[in-house]
Amino acid sequence: MLFLDRSNLRDQSGAALVPAPIEKLGLVMSPRSPGDATGAHSAMGCGLLRTGDAYRLYYSGITKEAPTFGICIAESTDLLHWTRPNLGQLRINGADTNRIRIEGLPENAPVTQPSVVPLPRGGH
Questions:
Q1: What is d(CA 59, CA 89) in angstroms, rounded to the nearest whole number?
Q2: Among candidate residues 87, 31, 89, 81, the one with its CA nearest the CA of residue 59
Q3: Model confidence pLDDT, tens digit, residues 16-71
Q4: Given CA atoms 66, 69, 75, 79 in this order, what sign does their dihedral have?
């Protein structure tokens, strides 16, 4: 059964959708590294993974220099304070970045909106 229609949910089970309490925290991440100097965004948490006691976020970073769009990594232990580790994979204006290099793509290919999917044999 799909729960896309509230009336269907109510008719089938007597349940009702109730939103959880939400507290607006403000800006959690802003552009501030060589890999995302012009902008940083993530859509729907598709790139958020738990790694032991921490979290890793794969997000879209934007720069004026080519490649203008790239996939960046940020890490956090509390989902509020993020660090951007230099990965040694992609340099912009001579500076190391937190962008990942994706094998098989042409050099300076713009990539954005990552979705991280667990693979059956491990890895992502």
A1: 16
A2: 31
A3: 667 778 787 777 777 778 888 888 877 665 688 888 899 999 988 988 888 888 99
A4: positive
What is the value of pTM for the model shown? 0.74
Q: Would you call 74 helix, strand, or coil by DSSP?
A: strand
Tokens found for residue 117: 């999917």
Tokens of residue 74, six digits: 């940020």
Tokens for 13, please give them: 């089970």
Q: Are strands 69-76 and 48-51 parallel, antiparallel or unpaired?
A: unpaired
Helix/strand/coil for 99: strand
Identify residue 92 by its one-letter amino acid code: I
Residue showing tokens 């667990």: 118
CA 63 to chain centre: 16
Respond yes or no on whether the N-terminal peptide bond of residue 114 is cis (omega within 30° of 0).
Answer: no
Output the CA torsion 39→44→46→52 (10° steps).
90
Rounded to whole angstroms, what are the CA distances from 10 to 6, 21, 98, 111? 6, 21, 47, 42
**Position 76: which residue type?**
S
